[in-house]
Amino acid sequence: MSREIHHIAHRKHPLVLRDTGSSFRCDGCGCLGVGSHYRCDLCDFDMHEFCATCPPASTFAFHGQHPLTFDRAGFLDGSVTCSMCEEPIKGMNYSCWGCDVCVHPICSQLPPTAVSPMHMAHTFVLAVGAPVECTLCRTSCHGRYQCLPCNINLHPKCLFGTVPTPVTVPTPVYIPNDVDALDKIVRRVTLLNLI
Ligand SMILES: [Zn+2]
Ligand SMILES: [Zn+2]
Ligand SMILES: [Zn+2]
Ligand SMILES: [Zn+2]
Ligand SMILES: [Zn+2]
Ligand SMILES: [Zn+2]
């Protein structure tokens, strides 16, 4: 990965890959980020490494039927919510409008599978689709980690314990530190006779 790039979103100066050691707000997608990212010091312009370099179209396991198109111009103004984290999208995004799927670029990078101590029997698979009830928080979810055999659905934030948009992409194996949440779902899963 080159340390300096020219980006259409910031034509005045090159962007340099840097780690400022503090969090930043990406001028591409509007989401928070931490760690190594592209930056123009002169203009205080920041961009996730992924937002700056991701391909114009890409197929993701969570929507395997069609490739999603990357909106590099970032025309969305917050009127559309992310299919994955359900926060408004203000800027760059990946979408399949035919299927009404639109996600923050960083939300597209959620691990396709994850395990959770809330349900160790099976691996959860990331999917988007018609809303179903989240087994943990009981509100509806479009984007979710699902265990199909057991009919368990969890918002990504309910599985990983990060809200509302993941600042960093969580590692595939993550133990939530929210003991209450863990306890809640263990009780609910037991109630449903799922384990
Ligand atoms: Zn970004
Ligand atoms: Zn600049
Ligand atoms: Zn999102
Ligand atoms: Zn589609
Ligand atoms: Zn939930
Ligand atoms: Zn299961």
Structure description:
- With 195 residues, the chain is mainly beta.
- The protein contains three helices and 14 strands.
- The strands form four sheets. A four-stranded antiparallel sheet has the order 1-2-5-6. A four-stranded antiparallel sheet has the order 7-8-9-10, with no helix packed on it.
- Strand 13 and strand 14 (152-154) form a beta hairpin.
- The longest helix is centred in the C-terminal third of the chain and has 13 residues, at 179-191.
- Bound molecules: zinc ion (ZN) (6 copies).
- One zinc ion (ZN) binds at residues 82, 84-85, 87, 103-104, 107, 165.
- The site of one zinc ion has 7 residues, from strand 2.
Q: Which descriptors would you attach to this protein?
A:
195 residues, mainly beta, Wheat Germ Agglutinin (Isolectin 2), domain 1, 3 domains, 4-stranded antiparallel sheet, 3 helices, 14 strands, elongated, binds zinc ion
What is the secondary structure topology, with strand pairs?
Elements: E1 4-7, E2 10-18, E3 24-25, E4 32-33, E5 37-40, E6 45-48, H1 49-53, E7 57-58, E8 68-81, E9 88-96, E10 101-103, E11 113-116, E12 119-133, E13 140-147, E14 152-154, H2 156-160, H3 179-191
Bound molecules: zinc ion (6 copies).
Protein name: DC1 domain-containing protein
InterPro entries: C1-like_sf, DC1
Pfam families: C1_2
